[in-house]
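hey m, so remember when u said the tokens were messed up on ur end? i reran from scratch. heres the input so u can diff it against urs
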Amino acid sequence: IRLQPAEFAKIGIVLALARYFSTRTLSLGRITSFIVPCVLIAVPFALIIKQPDLGSALILCAIALPIFYWAGLSILELFFLTSPIMSLILSAVPLIWAFTSNSSIGIWGAIPWGIFFVVFFIIIYMARPHTFILVGLVALNLFTAGITTVVWNGFLQDYQKKRILSFINPQADPAGAGYQVIQSKVAIGSGHFVGKGYLKGTQTRLSFLPEQHTDFIFSVLGEQFGFLGCIAILMLFLFIIVRGYMTLQYVKSRFSNLVIVGSVSLLSFHIFINVAMTLGMMPVVGVPLPFLSYGGSFTLTIAILIGFVLNARYNKQDF
């Protein structure tokens, strides 16, 4: 029996953050209120990155955002909180361009980051945060933009770099890093409107598509059941997510509300990232699709989280 500790760490993060914020609120004006939550996230994040499992590590950070919002942060404060990450990503455009096209993009590569910074300063001007917060945000954004090369060369593994580059240009290495994405899109596209039929997909039946039972299960469904089948599956996922969030109006306990937000958000992130990944809209990061991908640890994790939501809904009178 093989267990994936990273999957159960997601449950731990949801419960730990929910317990912490059940009696506290979060505010960008009180930097100290971020210390404990950041430590709770940083410890499992560092261990999972060491594994390495970038997809699960990013999911841990993504779970925290809706919980932070429910704990008191506004949309504007969430934007400020995530701005250093956006600054890091946008400042990487010239570097990624150089690798994918074997040429320098020159000053044009700074345009996305420049546009972001203009928008960033406009929002800051309108929000007028405290001077200390203003200086900290600007310094942090400049710092993350400046360490792009360090992150690329010293933090990311070679296979992770290849996945990012193949996402930008899959045809650059069609038999290597770009093979999965290309075959995934071929499988989904070949399904057309109604699909080829159950177990009749050529891409999947002839094993052209790697990892078709785990991370790329959506491609199998797209080939066999077509556009209609994909829409039906996505609508079922949407129904579960909406019903999960609707549970919040029946539950009075702050702790239970935070657990529901974390659980349903985790489900949402997994669905969004997996589907976007199989369609070539995001780099391949190894995030399974809930209820459908093969994997005992992940299936058990999702079952436990859904159990939390159902338990909170059923026992709403107790809070």
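this time it looks ok to me. The first helix runs from residue 5 to 21. if urs says something different then somethings off w ur setup not the seq
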